[in-house]
């Protein structure tokens, strides 16, 4: 049963210290900014955050980092022109970093959501990112053993949700949302608009309701459409 | 992919090295019609400007789209529609959107015909180094570079052949941290175009220089198409 919330602070209630938090978005496209801001107010700390990037500018994930709440970042591309908050923490030795190839990052979360124990992946063979990992040759090709990344919480930005908990996304803002939604114990999505059950065409639902625990209704569909 | 080989190595003399735009045009010329193609961030993105209107090439962007159109301007700009470099882009008829696991399954699964990447170094066996300088104070960031290098059916690299200091970037062994092993099949540089196979490096064309001059400056064995 999916809960529908109007207040972001209610939507993020109960996130514990030490949680692994999956945060959607590729840069700012699909970034659940209101949920991240609410997480900052909520106060959970000692977090491991999984996100493609390590924050942009001074808002959203960058603000969560600046508030000192994140112990470790798992991401594919932390270094950007506007990632000065992360850069400063990293250079000061105040944050741990695990760099994962982007496709492997997605697949490790997919595996978590799909109940896969581990998988052999060709990406990264022979590179520093495979150091210390088990490798195996299958049909003449080399692979690296990769383990799932399971979240305690996923914060996802979608476009429209229905009262049953189904989600659709918009353009390239879809990115990590559907995968992260499957990979966490508690999935919280923010949407521009919530519609009645039955209003979304079941053929076009991208994230089925079974994966979605809470929806934050931003009520901004007109502005975003 | 079918590529009609040039019959013989061509030395384009009486001219300088290729400019950046000219290099992009040479890469575009070698992309087969109807291919599914991923263009890396930065200079490879400019290859799209040189594809003929009727090329039938479908551009993949790893953040989750096939059928990507040119950069968006003015009213076209939509924060929900960006490319892998986070630049606002447009969508073409026939476009589709998909999530990250699907996007990289497409790549890793060998469905992308060609990807074009930049590089710090390429080795004579086609190893690629393009994600990390190895400097101890650098923040490592890999993005989709390793997935692309490993997954695409054909990996084309475009770069200058020498650093600003004149050091070769086509090398016997990469000294920078690797992105992928034996993955580069074509190397497009300002001074020459190379094919890389398990047999070694073959010069296809030179620009403003000769095979002999390049052989003297590179620490890599060079063959020509005429050596077959």
TrEMBL record, chain A:
Keyword Flavoprotein present in the record's keywords: the answer is no
Query: Which terms are listed as keywords in the entry?
Result: Transferase
Cross-referenced SMART domains: CoA_trans
Show the GO MF annotations: CoA-transferase activity
Decide whether keyword Transferase is in the record: yes
Q: Spell out the PROSITE patterns in the cross-references.
A: COA_TRANSF_1
Q: Which family does it belong to?
A: Belongs to the 3-oxoacid CoA-transferase subunit A family.
Entry-linked NCBIfam families: pcaI_scoA_fam
Name of the protein in question: 3-oxoadipate CoA-transferase subunit A
Automatic annotation (TrEMBL), chain B:
Name the PANTHER family on file: KETOACID-COENZYME A TRANSFERASE, SUCCINYL-COA:3-KETOACID COENZYME A TRANSFERASE SUBUNIT B-RELATED
Specify whether NADP is a keyword of the entry.
no
Q: Which domain of life is it from?
A: Bacteria
Q: Which SUPFAM superfamilies match?
A: NagB/RpiA/CoA transferase-like
InterPro entries the record matches: 3-oxoacid_CoA-transf_B, CoA_trans_fam_I, NagB/RpiA_transferase-like
Alphabetically list the UniProt keywords.
Answer: Transferase
Gene Ontology MF: a single term: CoA-transferase activity
Give the family, as the similarity comment puts it. Belongs to the 3-oxoacid CoA-transferase subunit B family.
Any idea what this protein is called?
Answer: 3-oxoadipate CoA-transferase subunit B
Q: Which Pfam families match?
A: CoA_trans (PF01144)
UniProt-listed SMART domains: CoA_trans
